[in-house]
Amino acid sequence: MLYHELSNLADHAVRDMQFAEIYHPYTGEKYGGIQESNGELVQWSAANRQTWSATGYIRMLC
Length: 62
Fold this sequence. Notes:
By secondary structure, the chain is an alpha+beta fold. It has one domain (2-61). Helix content is 42%, strand content 13%. The protein is built from two helices and two strands; from the N terminus they run αββα. A hairpin with a 2-residue loop joins strand 1 (34-37) and strand 2 (40-43). The chain is elongated, with a radius of gyration of 13 Å.
């Protein structure tokens, strides 16, 4: 399980040349998630170049 997640994140980072904020759970594409705004569901855009995502990946290795 750990190897699978490490491998997926590494593949995404190599593909996108960065660590994005969130990846879609089914497609693996950069994804901002669904948020509620004024009673409506809105898809947010993903934030690029997220240091915390990169350090989270490194922390999985330590």
